[in-house]
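Forwarding the complex inputs:
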Amino acid sequence: MNLTLKIWRQKGPQDKGKMVDYKVTDISEHMSFLEMMDVLNEQLTNKGEEPVAFDHDCREGICGMCSMYINGEAHGPDRGVTTCQLHMRMFKDGDTITIEPFRAKAFPVIKDLVVDRSSFDRIQQAGGFISVNTSGNTQDANAIPIDKHAADEAMDAATCIGCGACVASCKNSSAMLFVGAKVSQYALLPQGRVEATDRVKNMVAQMDLEGFGNCTNTGACEVECPKGISLENIARMNREFFAASIKG
Amino acid sequence: MSVLDSKVPKGPLKDKWTTYKDKINLVNPANKRNIDVIVVGTGLAGGSAAATLAELGYRVKAFCYQDSPRRAHSIAAQGGINAAKNYQGDGDSTYRLFYDTIKGGDYRSREANVYRLAEVSTNIIDQCVAQGVPFARDYGGLLDNRSFGGVLVSRTFYAKGQTGQQLLLGAYSAMNRQIARGKIEMFNRHEMLDVVKVNGKARGIIARNLVTGEIERHSAHAVVIASGGYGNVYFLSTNAMGSNATAAWKIHKKGAFFANPCYTQIHPTCIPRSGDYQSKLTLMSESLRNDGRIWVPKRMEDVLAIREGKLKPTQLSEDQRDYYLERRYPAFGNLVPRDVASRAAKERCDAGFGVNATGEAVYLDFKSAIERYGLEQAKIQGIQDASKEKITELGEAVVEAKYGNLFQMYEKIVDENPYKTPMMIYPATHYTMGGVWVDYNLMTTVEGLYCIGEANFSDHGANRLGASALMQGLADGYFVLPYTIGDYLSHEIRTGKIPTDTPEFDEAEKEVTERINFFVNNKGSHSVDYFHKRLGKVMWDKCGMSRNTKGLKEAMAEIKEIREEFYKEVNVPGSANEMNPELEKAGRVADFLELGELFAKDALMREESCGGHFREESVEIDGEQKGEAKRNDKDYAFVAAWEYKGEPADAVLHKEQLEFKDIELKQRSYK
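Prediction (whole assembly, two chains):
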C-alpha cells in the first residue's frame, strides 16, 4: 500500500516543531508500524536527510519505550497493543496517517517523536518500592500465603509498562492510571501493606509536583492502555489516599 | 600453565561458596561511602547489582541507553525463573539443579560457578517475594511452579508470561529506593563507549549522553559491565533493537578476554519470519512446550497443499502428522532442551516439510491440551456428558489463563487465532552463552573490571536451559558480585577519589571522539542497516544452527570484507552533538562486525558439536544416537578465551581446562 505520513518534526527541546508530509510506497500489510517507519527512515537516510527520531526498543510490546500519537490515539487505532505491535493491516492503501509525540506538560519533547518521561521514574522513586534490603536472609517465599485472587489482581496492576499512553490520552494529562497501578500492586500484597500509608502520600505528592493533571473519570486512559490496566486501580488509589490522609 | 586463573576456591564443591564468603575481606561502612562503583546496564544483573551495592553503602553510578532502567531487555523474558525450592516435592535439590544445568550446558561450564548458582537460587525467590513480585500462586496461597525443557522436575516460578518484566520491575524498585536516597546516581540515555584503565586497573568509563551528544568522563574504583548478550550480531534476533555488544567488545579490546563466542542459543519457539522488511523476531515462551505438541505433516503432498492454502492443518488426522520430537526423543518429547528442539525443526524444514511459504515453520499445536483441560474442567464443574464444543470452550479458558498474553501477541502479529489453528514457529537467535571471560569472582582479565549476567560466559556452558537466564542475572547481581567485589574493594580504601583529568582519560576520550567524528563525516552511500543486514545473513547462513569448516572460513573472509566496506561506505546522517540514533547504531554495528569474525574463528577452532554449537563434521555415525551431536571431551573440554591482538582474526587463544570432579561426563541423551 502507499501512504502519506504527516509527522511532527522538532530538532531539539528548545526548537519550534512542525508537521511535515512524507510519502511511503509498497508497504506490506504484515509490517509493524515501526517497520513502516524504518522504511521511511531508510528512504530519508539514502536521500541524505535526517531520519525521524522515535523511541523504540523491544518491539514486542513489553518494554514500554515506544510511544507515538497516531491519528489522534496513543499507540494508534488498534486496542491492547503498543505502537511496535500495531500492524499495517489496520490501515488502507491511500491513507493519510498523522503521527505526533505523546503530548503532556510533564513529557517534554526531546526530538521529533521522542519525549522525556523521566517524571514517571521520579514518581516511582518517591515510593514505588518495598523497603527491603538484599540479604539472603529474608523469610521463606512461602512463609506468608497470599490469596490467589489478591495475587492475580496485584499481577494485573503490575503489568503496567510505564509507556505513558494514559497521560497522552487524558485531556487533563493525568497520570492517575499509572500511579494507581503501582499503588495497587503493593496495596494488594501483604509485603506492601507495611508502608502503604507513606507510599501513596509520597507518590501522589510527586505526581502533583511533576505537573500531571487530575482525574475527571473520562476513562480514556483505560481504553488506550496497551496492557488493559483497569480504572479500578485509580479508585483503589483514591481509597488508599483517603485512608492515609485520615491517619495523618 | 595458562595465564587464566579461575580462582575457584579449594575444598569440596558443596562448601566452596560458604567457605569463600567466610574468608573474604570486608570493607567497613565508613569506607564504603568513599568508594565509587560504575555499573553499565540495568537489566536483571546490572539493576540488582546496582541496588545491592548501594544498599551496602557504596556510591553507585548506573548507566543505561534506554530512557529508564525499567526498559532493559530482561523485561521481555516470558517463561520463568528456576530455583531449587522443591516446593512441589518432586525430588528437586541444589545438586539436581546444578546437575541439570551442567548437563543442559553440555558439560562446557565451570562446575564451581554453576553449583554456587544453584545454591543461591532459592534466596532469589525469597528476595523477590519480599520485594512484592507477584508470582503465580495456587488456591492455597502458595507459589505455583511449571516445568521447562531439559529437566524432569517443576522448579520454574513464573508471573503469567511476563516473569522477566516482574523481576526487572522488582530490581528497578530496589534501584529507585537507592536513587531516592542518593546512593545511586542514575544516567539514563547514556551509552558507555570505552573503559579507562589506569596502571592496569579499570578506573572509569567514557560515556556519550544520547540526548545532547556530549562525551562524559566518569571515574570509579571498579567497573561492572552488565550489558547483556550479542545476539543482534545476527541482525534478526529476539533481542531488543538497541541490544548491543559495545560495552563488552570495548573492554575486550582493552584486555578482557572474550570466551566461547560461538556458543549461541537459537530458540526453537519463535514466530517465523514473514518478509525482508522484518526488523526483529518475537519469541513465544518455551513454557508453551508444556502443553503444545510440535509437528509437521508426514506426507510431502500435504505440506505442499498447506503451503498453497488448499489444506488446513486442522484437517490432517493424527496418523498424518509427524510429532517428530515425540518420535525421536520419547523420554523428553516436546520438552527436550532448546538446542535439540531447534535442530530437529531445522532438520524437518531442510527436508522440505516446513509449513509456510518460506518453508521455515513447524506447527505448535494445543488441540490435545485444550481437550485434556476441557475434560478435566468438565469433571471439576460436574458437567455430565459435556458436548465437544463445551469441552473445547472449557479447555480454551484454561489455556488462556496460562498463556493468554502469548496467544494474544501471536494473533496480533500473525493475524491467525492460535486457539483454532496451530501456531507456526521457527527457531531464532535468542541468547548468547558466550561472553566476557570471568573468574570465580566474576572479574575479567582486567583488574577491577567485572562482568555479570548474559554479558559474561560463566554458567550456561554451550547451551542454556529455559528459565535459567533470569536466575543467573539475579544471582550475579543480588548475591554473588556484592560479595566478590568487596574483597577487591577492601584494597581500595586508601586510594581516594579517582581524578578524570589524567592522560588516561584524555586518551580514551580522544579515541571515542575521533571515531564519532569519523562516522558523521564519512558520508558514504549506504545506511548502517544495510551493512548490519548483510552481516546478519552471513552469520545466520554460516554460523547458525549448523556449521562446517568451509562455511566458517567463508564467513570469516566475508565478514572482514563487509567490515572494510562499512568503513568506506557507511552513511550516518545528522551531527555528533545531538540525539542521533543512526550514529548510535553505527558504533554498535562496527563492533558487531568485529565480534562476528571472532565468533566464526571460535566456531572453526571448536571441531566438536556441543550444545548450541553444532559442527556437521562431528555427529554420531551409528547406534541409537545416530545423527545426534557428538562432543569431544578429550580435546575440547576447555573454555576458549580469546585475547585481542588487533584484527579479530589475530586473536590469541587461551584455554581454561574444565575439570569435573562431582559429575560424570556423559553424552547427553534425551531419548
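Chain B has a mean pLDDT of 95.
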